[in-house]
Amino acid sequence: MKKAPFLLLMPVVFAVAWYGYTNRIKWVSGFARTPASTKKGSLAIHPSHTERTTTTIAPTHKDPPSRAANNIENIREPGSELATMLDAGQSLNAAIEKAILRAPQGKNDATIASVVQQAAGICNEDPDTFNVADPRNPDASRTWAITRKLDLCSGFEVKKYRLKPPPGSNAAGLLVTDGPDVAAATAFEDVAHASDRQSLYQAGQVLFETHQFPLAEVSPEATQLGLIDLNQAWLMAVDLAMCSQWTGCGPNSLRAAEFCSFAGCPPGSDLEQAYKFNLSPDRYQMVLAFAQWIATQRW
User: Fold this and answer.
1) Long-range contacts from 91-95, C-beta under 8 angstroms, 24+ separation
2) Which of helix, strand or coil describes residue 292?
């Protein structure tokens, strides 16, 4: 009977994931630069994140970084060959085919599989999202990114690669079957070792839901946010921390092109600059803090 309440959490986990994908620009707009007097008022306050639960697990993770350590140089590990090729301007097809040939595990390489999985979601988006809304008054902050996204996705077909899918995570399932402590312990392991975006994103969701994420230590401002906003900040942090391993971080990268094609950024922005341009300073620092925490858990 004690496990029954956690059955209610599963729809939340997957609903938040779907909401995060379909409403990413609404979230960016909500976190955009605003007068200081309106920043907090524009965000939902989630009471469950202002109080800590009494349930704890044995520490299996590293200490949070200091606030002074939150800079981009401390976040990223050396880039993968695939991400480096994308940053250099190659198309997805060319970069993926070369990466498969050079990877020791070939089509079983989890990093390559994760990139293909992400590319499938981006390149198969509604074609209308690739277009500038008013051709008579094109938005220069988006057109450069749309052009790059079109170049990257040209000829990309996920089915032709026949890759072994990423291993995934069972942290959310454990939340139902084994309770919050076991699920959180698995989520911490996923943060440290997951090779795919969905597993790393889901790990953060589980840690927020079980109140095991060290919010007060990593980003005190985040304790005032609701679950949806926390997950959106976490997803941006995942992409920022892992872009050097996955889709690249620079202005030619898939993730920067995808983000800026919707949100708008100064032409030539890399992913970190795109976030900085679109977020208020405190929200940008929050994303950096989350990304730095991911880095401390992984390398």
Assistant:
1) 91/151, 91/152, 91/154, 91/155, 91/156, 92/119, 92/123, 92/152, 92/153, 92/156, 92/254, 93/154, 93/155, 93/156
2) helix
Residue 220, both tokens: 């005190």
Q: Which residues of 123-134 are buried (b: 16+ CB within 10 A; e: fewer)?
A: beeeeeebeeee
Q: What are phi and psi of 212, to 5 degrees?
A: -100, -10
Torsion from C-alpha of 231, 23, 86, 299, nearest 10 degrees:
0
Residue type, 184: A
Cite the DSSP H helix spans in 178-280.
180-193, 197-209, 215-218, 227-242, 254-263, 271-278
How many Cβ atoms sit within 10 Å of the Cβ of residue 71?
Answer: 10
SS3 label, residue 261? helix
Q: What angle do CA 75, 79, 84 make, to 5 degrees?
A: 130
pTM: 0.75
Reduced to 3 states, what is the DSSP secondary structure of residue 177?
Answer: helix
Residues 245/112, Cβ–Cβ less than 8 Å = no
* Distance between CA atoms of residues 231 and 16, nearest Å: 7
How far does Cα 87 stand from its chain's mean position?
Answer: 18
Predicted pLDDT of residue 31:
53
User: What does the pLDDT look like over 152-193, one tens digit per residue?
Assistant: 999 888 888 878 777 778 888 888 899 999 999 999 999 999
pLDDT, residue 98, reads 92
Q: Which of 98, 89, 97 is nearest to 151 (CA)?
A: 89
- Low-confidence residues of the chain: pLDDT under 50: 1-23, 26, 33-60, 64-70
Listed in sequence order, the residues at least 6 apart from 48 whose beta carbon sits closer than 8 Å to its beta carbon are 211, 227
Residue 269: Cβ within 10 Å count: 24
